[in-house]
Amino acid sequence: MSEELEPGIDHLAARLIGGEHSGGPVENTVDLGRIERAVYEILLAIGENPDRDGLQKTPARVARAYAEMFAGLRIDAAQVLTTTFEADHDEFVLVRDIEVYSSCEHHLLPFHGVAHVGYIPGAHGRITGLSKLARLVEVYARRPQVQERLTSQIADTLAEVLDPRGVIVVVDCEHLCMSMRGIRKPGSRTVTSAVRGHFERSAAARNEAMSLILRR
Ligand SMILES: Nc1nc2c(ncn2[C@@H]2O[C@H](COP(=O)(O)OP(=O)(O)OP(=O)(O)O)[C@@H](O)[C@H]2O)c(=O)[nH]1
Ligand SMILES: [Zn+2]
């Protein structure tokens, strides 16, 4: 079993989130060996034989998958937004339907769906690259999460770093912990929203943004 994170994994995580260029260096490492030992124990505990042919590499595979799924824990989200541009544009900017794969922190099962991220640039007219909004979603999604916190973390980081007039974030996901186990309601969606600045104060601005978010 490997004890240290393979160099390739950190690079993979870095590329996924933005890497040295926009996500900052990945400073800490995941203890792959520890995950492997734990997964080996889980396989024993469910009554499987972890040493049978098909399962021999499973603990190592799961460890690498976890390193990727939780790579966001080791990345400073604010670093993702360091590329900003001056622009005359002071109207609403929205990136819709950003695919989200996250893990619920209660069951470590996936929840997946879409995020819609919009903001109105601030008085200084600074905007960020559109892809950076999706990278911001990635950084927070690749952590053990609850959907409410994911939504507000995206909104708060945008509000802090860009100092925009307003921010609106809507996340719409299906939680596999509600679909494949427990209450077993496949297809149910959870929708969470977070508004900051102008969108908190103005119902008209909120409604206009929501109509663009919901437009099909
Ligand atoms: N608010 C919120 N709840 C979540 C999220 N993801 C999972 N949950 C819920 O977390 C709760 C955990 O409840 P518990 O009673 O401690 O755990 P449980 O016995 O496995 O619950 P059931 O899922 O109802 O079987 C469940 O109601 C989940 O649906 C999330 O992102 N936000
Ligand atoms: Zn869950």
TrEMBL record:
Domain GTP cyclohydrolase I residues, every copy: 35-213
Catalytic activity: GTP + H2O = 7,8-dihydroneopterin 3'-triphosphate + formate + H(+)
Enzyme nomenclature, EC number: 3.5.4.16
Biochemical pathway: Cofactor biosynthesis; 7,8-dihydroneopterin triphosphate biosynthesis; 7,8-dihydroneopterin triphosphate from GTP: step 1/1
Family membership noted in the UniProt record: Belongs to the GTP cyclohydrolase I family.
Domain of life: Bacteria
Amino-acid positions noted as binding Zn(2+) in the UniProt annotation, renumbered to this chain: C104, H107, C177
Glycoprotein keyword on record: no
UniProt-recorded name of the protein: GTP cyclohydrolase 1
Oligomer and partners: Homopolymer.
Pfam families per the UniProt record, alphabetical: GTP_cyclohydroI
Cellular component terms per the entry's GO annotation: cytoplasm
Listed HAMAP family: FolE
The entry's keywords: GTP-binding, Hydrolase, Metal-binding, Nucleotide-binding, One-carbon metabolism, Zinc
GO MF terms held by the record: GTP binding; GTP cyclohydrolase I activity; zinc ion binding
GO terms (BP aspect): one-carbon metabolic process; tetrahydrobiopterin biosynthetic process; tetrahydrofolate biosynthetic process
InterPro entries named among the record's database cross-references: GTP-CH-I_C/QueF, GTP-CH-I_N, GTP_CycHdrlase_I, GTP_CycHdrlase_I_CS, GTP_CycHdrlase_I_dom
Classification via NCBIfam families: folE (TIGR00063), PRK09347.1-2 (NF006825), PRK09347.1-3 (NF006826)
